[in-house]
Design brief:
3 helices; 38% helix; globular; alpha+beta; 5-stranded antiparallel beta sheet
Length: 129
């Protein structure tokens, strides 16, 4: 019974990842032009696009909060990229075009986001190997 449950959960998770990848294909493709190890991360029910830096470090891409699960990106409010270090429990915002809730969204260009994240990731790898 538990094996069937786990298989069902894995199938649902894979379907969710495929949906997320299709919703944010333009962002993922722009990032993949500048960096490797682009993935989709589910933390609870939240969706983030991630770029792995090391085993316990990554860059998370989101909007004001997490990424919405539908086509309407107006809730994003812009893009935010955050370097998360699980070793030290630290977070560093490396790119942020988000605006306060209720205001028009900031720049939603995936190309600018990808360029900034790519430059940060290259610099991080040059410094840390």
């Amino acid at each position: 019974m538990s094996l069937t449950y786990l298989s069902a959960v894995n199938l649902l998770r894979r379907a969710d990842e495929e949906k997320a990848r299709s919703l944010y294909a333009d962002v993922i493709e722009a990032l993949e032009q500048h960096v490797t190890d682009v993935g989709v991360d589910f933390c609870g029910n939240e969706l983030n696009i991630t770029v792995q830096l090391a085993e316990d470090q990554y860059v998370a891409i989101a909007g004001r909060y997490s990424l919405p699960w539908h086509d309407d990106r107006s809730e994003l409010g812009g893009w935010m990229a955050v370097h998360i270090d699980d070793v030290y429990g630290s977070r560093k915002v490396i790119y942020d075009t988000t605006t306060p809730e209720g205001e028009p969204p900031g720049d939603l260009s995936p190309e600018l986001l990808a360029e900034e994240v790519g430059a940060y990731v290259s610099g991080w790898h040059a410094e840390h190997g």
